[in-house]
């Protein structure tokens, strides 16, 4: 698979599978994209900013744009509308996939955004497991009692049709579940 194809998938069609946060204009962090691609392994283990710049410069169709520490697809998004961070009532349960060694800390401290602005949560188990596989070949699947957390004051934001965001999720609302 060509680099442009995987970057298209990440920036135009399924940013949640790469744990990317696109702003309202479709911009994502170059560092987050590089980290996500490297985590996929194989041909992507050595991808860096320079490889992205060469891909962009050598493309006749100019599908992508780099500006400072951000990158975006210029067109061709299959995501509905602009991605906005609106507060909304979440579904009863949301899911998060992570590495087994991270579970112990989450059990105590809850879900924290670490190097991101928000904790990313999936609407279904399959997507959460796919995201978790970026961190481990045997990810841990977590269930978040989202409606209960919202009732207790945790704000949830719509990321897109498959992803919800929160600043943090207290451990009280998180359970390990079978994947």
Automatic annotation (TrEMBL):
InterPro entries: Ptrans_KptA/Tpt1 (IPR002745), RNA_2'-PTrans_C (IPR042081), RNA_2'-PTrans_KptA (IPR022928), RNA_2'-PTrans_N (IPR042080). SUPFAM superfamilies: ADP-ribosylation. Its EC number is 2.7.1.-. Pfam families: PTS_2-RNA. Keywords: NAD, Transferase. It comes from the Bacteria. The keyword NAD applies. PANTHER family: PUTATIVE PHOSPHOTRANSFERASE, TRNA 2'-PHOSPHOTRANSFERASE 1. Removes the 2'-phosphate from RNA via an intermediate in which the phosphate is ADP-ribosylated by NAD followed by a presumed transesterification to release the RNA and generate ADP-ribose 1''-2''-cyclic phosphate (APPR>P). May function as an ADP-ribosylase. Belongs to the KptA/TPT1 family. This is Probable RNA 2'-phosphotransferase.
């Amino acid at each position: 698979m060509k680099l442009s194809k995987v970057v298209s998938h990440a920036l135009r069609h399924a940013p949640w599978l790469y744990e990317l946060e696109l702003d309202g204009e479709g911009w994502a962090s170059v560092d987050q994209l590089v980290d996500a691609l490297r985590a996929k392994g194989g041909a992507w283990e050595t991808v860096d900013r320079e490889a992205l710049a060469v891909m962009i410069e050598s493309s006749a169709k100019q599908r992508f744009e780099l500006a400072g520490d951000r990158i975006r697809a210029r067109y061709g998004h299959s995501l509905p509308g602009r991605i906005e961070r609106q507060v909304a009532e979440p579904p009863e349960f949301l899911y998060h996939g992570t590495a087994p060694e991270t579970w112990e800390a989450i059990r105590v401290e809850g879900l924290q955004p670490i190097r991101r602005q928000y904790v990313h949560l999936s609407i279904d188990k399959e997507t959460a497991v796919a995201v978790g596989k970026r961190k481990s070949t045997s990810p841990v699947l977590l269930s978040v009692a989202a409606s209960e957390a919202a009732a207790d004051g945790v704000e949830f934001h719509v990321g897109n049709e498959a992803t919800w965001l929160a600043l943090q999720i207290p451990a009280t609302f998180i359970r390990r579940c079978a994947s």
